[in-house]
Amino acid sequence: ETMDGVACYRLEVEAVVRDRDHLDGDVWVSRDDCSLVRIAGAVSDPPFPLAEIRLDKRFAAGPCGLSLLRSHTGEVRAGLVLGRKAGVRHITYSAYVVNGMPEGPGLR
After folding, report:
1. Residue 91: which H helix or E strand, with range?
2. For a FRET experiment, which of 25, 30, 43, 90 has its CA 20 to 30 Å from that of 12?
3. Cis amide prior to 63 (ω within 30 degrees)
């Protein structure tokens, strides 16, 4: 399927270890070179008092087949005794330099 204009394979991933460090979701990799395009899913067992942690990371091709993080969205839902709370954080990464590697398309 196409993701962010890139022909991709979509892989479903399920955490074998069920804890706050592992994710259930989908990974999109480029059909051309298997570089990361997107990772989206939920933490398999979020720590109390969090009821859900959802992540969505998008990547862009960098030099030498390197996948560079371009955006990150994190969404958290907490189940508290007095009610529920939720929050979303969007972070966009742009105009950065990768030191120690040759320059490639889209890098300065």
Report:
1. strand 83-92
2. 90
3. no
The DSSP call for residue 45 is S
> How many residues can be counted in the chain?
108
pTM, full prediction: 0.80
Long-range contacts of 52-56 (CB under 8 A, 24+ apart): 52/76, 52/77, 53/20, 53/77, 55/23, 55/25
What was the pLDDT predicted at 29?
A: 95
Distance CA 6, CA 72 (A): 18
Range from 23-27, 53-57, 59-63, 73-77 carrying the lowest mean pLDDT: 59-63
Q: Is the pLDDT of residue 100 over 80?
A: no
| Cβ count within 10 A of residue 84 | 10
Rounded to 10 degrees, the C-alpha dihedral 94/26/37/67 comes to 80
